[in-house]
Amino acid sequence: MHVELKERLLAHSQSDCWENAKEEWYFDNVFYAEEGVPCLCTDYPIKHVCVIGNCENADTKFICRSCANEVLEADIAEEIFSSVEKLKEDITKSMTSRVLEYMMFKGLVSGFEFEFYSNVMDKQDILEGQMNSKKIINQKLIDFTTYETFSTFSKIRSILLWASGNKRYRTNFVESIKRAGERNGLFSKKQIQNIDEIYMKDVVE
After folding, report:
1. CB-based burial of residue 57 (10 Å sphere; 0-12 exposed, 13-18 middle, 19+ buried)?
2. With 0-12 CB in 10 A as exposed, 13-18 as middle and 19+ as buried, what is 101?
3. What pLDDT digit, counting tens, does each position of 42-94 carry?
4. Which of 138, 124, 102, 136 is CA-nearest to residue 26?
5. What single string gives the DSSP state of each residue in 142-156?
6. SS3 at position 122
């Protein structure tokens, strides 16, 4: 494992022992950063960004795909990026079963959508209506991995975390936008504007 990655992750972990600290980190999601963000291992800008979270202190860090494989000993990030790139080239193609499960875990597809996609993903010939439904689900994955969507979800998490310490603050509106983002895979311009305004007014200030 990259020495700097290990040292920096350890510095942001609760445990001082690497073997225990490593278990604190889990795969959260991925996004594309057009301008690039620094990877935790070398500070070198990366465009295919993996987000990992710490279950002990709620910290999050950005790492590259290879680092994600080393830390988590799993290749789900690589599989998501591969599926997205394939779907960008041809929206009629299918994501993998693991990526579909990831979408289900993130709340991006309903139980009905999950079962539907599972049934048609390996079929060559499907009805036009089925293909349209499949394309909608594929587009959700593409939209969910944009920086704009990731940034909005991050601000929502920050708002809800701030609100947990301010009991008088009503979170219904923010949670409704969060559910819409999970349901659609992206946010409308108005929803993004609303979250930005709440974030700047209540969290930053």
Report:
1. exposed
2. middle
3. 767 899 999 999 999 988 999 988 888 887 766 889 999 999 999 999 999 99
4. 102
5. HHHTBHHHHHHHHHH
6. coil
